[in-house]
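Please, structure for the following, as tokens.
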Amino acid sequence: MYRNIEEITGKRTFLSTGCLKAKNGDIIIDKEKILERWAEYIRELFKDDRKDHNVMKNNFAGPPIMKEEVETAIKKMKHGKATGPDNISVELIEALEDFGIGKVTHLLNEIYDTGQIPTDPSLYSLHCQRSQVQQNVNYTEQSVS
């Protein structure tokens, strides 16, 4: 009867045997040795034999990021999405208007030129008018980090 039900539903139950094959092909039954074999397998799986990664410094010569490029990227962003770890929404970025977009462009060019993201977010506080986002609050401060 169970076989007929399995054939009709297409579900098969698989039982664990409680054993594992060792690297040399022997069957391991002891629980401690099974755990050791799994640990060995995981170490081999994630073993990294590559050479150290060389970081290129300032080899990104190219034209600076233009304000128009930033504006185009902002316009392509989708509305109503969840904010990232910086808690800055698309609507807030759009409300930056001309002055704020200039600041963002300057920040992006600085990151592009130095290759480093600033660690002190207070250096890059943006004051933006939120008339488009919220009627009651005129100004808000957002940290870009």
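Residues 2-45 form one domain. Strands lie at 20-21, 27-28, 125-129, 139-143.
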